[in-house]
Design a protein that fits this description.
- The structure is a single chain.
- With 77 residues, the protein is mostly helical.
- The protein has a two-stranded antiparallel ribbon with strand order 1-2.
């Protein structure tokens, strides 16, 4: 299962509304700005702990920002 941003563009707007830059939020939640950028671009997926830090810092609910991709891939031989 992977935690994904629902809408990266809306998330960026939320950052501005809450008074954060991408860098300042990354520093607030104690992750590197480069890792945070990878999350925003969908190249990495935050852990539950990081997702919680993000929602707490933005005073938002998990379901407002993220969704859990629990799609299972089956492999046939």
């Amino acid at each position: 299962m992977k935690i994904n941003l629902k809408n990266p563009e809306e998330f960026k707007k939320l950052l501005l509304v809450k008074g954060f830059s991408q860098r300042s939020l990354a520093e607030t939640i104690e992750i590197s700005p480069s890792y945070f950028n990878l999350i925003l671009n969908g190249e990495r997926f935050p852990s539950g702990k990081v997702a919680k830090k993000i929602t707490d810092a933005l005073e938002s609910e998990f379901d407002d920002i993220f969704f859990i991709d629990d799609a299972c891939k089956s492999y046939q031989k």
